[in-house]
Amino acid sequence: MERCSRVVRLLSFVVLVALGGCEKESWDLVSPPPSADSIMVRLVNFTTGGASYALELDAIVARNQTQQVPPSSASALIPSPADSAYVRVRDANGTVVRDQSVRTRFTKRTYETFVLLSSPRGQPDADTLVRLVTNPQPLPALGRAQLRLFNALPDTALTFEVRLGCPSGAYFDRQSFRGLGSPHDLPAGEIVLSILRGIEPIAIVRGNLQSQSFATLIIAGTAATPRIFLLNELNPTPAALEELPTVPVAERTAELRWMNVSRYQFDSIRIASVGVVAARGQGRWLSDYQRIPACGDVLSDTIQLYSNGVLQDAQTISIEVGYRYTVIIADAPNFGAPASRLAVISRDRSTIPGDSTEWRVLNAAGRGQSLTALLGARLDGRGGYHNGEYLASALSDGALSQPVRLAAGDVPLILRSGLPERIAAVAYDTARGGHQYTLAVLSTESGDAELYTIADDEASGVIAPLAPGVYVQVVNAFADRTLMNCQFSGGVSRSGISPTNLLATVLPAGTARLIVNGIEQALVLDPSRVVSVIAAGTAQMPRLIVLDSVSLQPTTFVARVRCVNAAPDVPLLRMARDQLASLDQWDSNIFADRVAFGFASRPVEFGQLQRINLVFGTPDSPPRVLFRPDGSVSFALGKAYTVVFFGTHAGGYNFFIFQEP
Fold this sequence. Notes:
This protein has 661 residues and is mostly beta strands.
């Protein structure tokens, strides 16, 4: 009996300890709100009765409340004391007008916006509390922002549509009362939006999207007087909510100029809602900008080109407020009707940073072929190195590429086209930060490509193609397989080019000074030729081999190959094909013979695609005493190649192949 009593007392003690532990348990241990996981909350008051309200978060461990928020206003952000709370709304007298029956659970690291709305029937004034959640991770890209639409206008019979720019602009979203749309990624900067009720524009407003911001466009007010607001979700102050001003009719304008890259005159350019905007435009001419009205119609507009009294081409267009348009007139493909097709390039309102440029490419060559435009190795305005940047890839005839942002500075242009693809033109230019450039590709009557670059602030007058540049490449063939440092006077410099790799760029015609690991080499740059510099020897004692020749590109569908002797201790080099059955018969398989150090062989042509085994030796060596007997390679037809043999007897010989431009 006594033992049973002791057991009962022990159980009672355990129960009391457990109960005491529950009473003292901290909510912070269950749901800790560290600053890194903070939850920020605000109230936006879009009631229509004129009253002010405050939002209260009633958590277990603390209570937090916004200030009283007048109509059409927002509170500052307040931190939630926990990851869940009872959400209540109080009027100016402290009376609870909205009370959640259950705790609202939040997600850590989010921004929670509670929008207080009136009933569509007018009463109660504080009828609905709508929750908008923003997760700021990840942020939009630099120069971009995210925007969504929320309809806070208390009328269930109305649906509003938003379009980017003018009423004829691109569709953005459509929402009815309490509807919230998905976020759209847009360029940061000034934005113009049109609000439509059905097909009727009710407002054209202007705002600003901050870079890497999350924003909500809110339609509020009444059916008789809609009002448009923009809420910057991450702004912690009441100023996060602003009413967007309407764009006055007098300011609904754009700027337009034309550039006729044809050699022939056109009759006129007309915009359906505006009329004639250009007449008797002479060939090879860039006009001044002129101001034209924008937002003239709900429907898309049409821009038309007339030549020889006939409508030659037309495109749909929406003339947007504050945009700058360049209309390019070109000949039809394959030298068809002159001045008979057009392309429209627009510069929007977004700001291009001062260290950046924006590029678009127009393929107006008229040869029915696609083209690829890229840049050679270059330095930007701050001295930073860039390589392998593409402006456009496989751009079809007559097409205009999408905008590409690049760092300002040198612009070594390389144009590739044809089948197989090969270099069609090279040119050198520079680009100023904060501007938009268009690279227009045309053809001469002989079929050669011409490159034109036009800045968005280019002065009017006669247009001329860029002067042809010179393609230059520097190849690391150091025998000790070490890094190469390369610099052109006043141009691109690059350190740390690894063995068998190269630096390729475009330089203006004339003369240049090349420095490789401290060794200088003067170059004469002729646009009709290609310069390849092979750095042989060692990193401490470079020996530069300059190959200055016309392009090796074959005119027929064959592979063209040459060999360079870059091995200092091999006075004469032989390159041949190993056919196994005829190892002793060098003569029938020799591709290059008696190639002295520092020289290249004459190119040979391969008429069919096949894999062969290259062997290297000297003219007087026995057939089976070779430097490299195991070089299995193949050469694609329609291309040109250089085989570089390098190394030393002490360190071993090797070879590599690079494709010629």
